[in-house]
Specification:
Structural class: mainly alpha
Shape: flat
Order of helices and strands: HHHHHHHH
Number of helices: 8
Low-confidence stretches: none
Number of strands: 0
Largest sheet: none
Helix content: over 70%
Amino acid sequence: MKTSVFIIIVLLSGAFAGLIHGTVNFAMVEPYLDQAIGIENQNLFATGEEEDTLEFWVEYEGYRVWQKSGQIVSGVILGTSIGALFGIVFALSKNSLPGNNPLKKSLVLAGIMWITLYLIPFIKYPANPPTVGDSETIVLRAVLYLSFIAISGIGALSFYKLSKKIQHRNKLVSLIGYGIFISVVFFIMPENPDDVSAPMSFVNEFRLMSVLGVSSFWLSVGIMLGIFWNKIESQEKTKQYS
């Protein structure tokens, strides 16, 4: 596959998946963001930090409209960047992935990356609605979450490389090794420093919507790249035999 074609299909896959992710977030997550910010606004009014005035609501609505208008665009941009990473990893690992065609292989890789880079870190540090938690700990919480993602991703990559060096390439050994490794890290990493003060029913619904939103990206990028890759390979094979 030509480098230019590879770059195009990788970026297109990420952009389409990001578009789907942004749209799903806009439809399913934004209502919970509105509700969470509404709770925070009422707390600000109650403590006297802000006044319930027309000027406040005009400024607030303008800010939220600006945020929402960029939701899908930011999804496309983020999806393109993550899609580029996904495409590179797929190109390097395609021959080692199970499946008899690029689509199945792409979906397998998307599932692996979804588990290692999202699901496991999410279980340790589940997403909370905005305004939930102490603003003074936001940097610490971000560092903990990103650190866990990095550790999980590097651990998965390391055990994958280890499996290639083991005789007969026993993938089960590397899978068990990663499971033990990430379990130890899971219990060693500090807990979220903030208590959740919002109603747990609301928080759990927000978390569920967040999972669905991110999952829509990984499923979409796996399908998109697999379809594009399969089509290009089929075209190249046709040209070889024509």
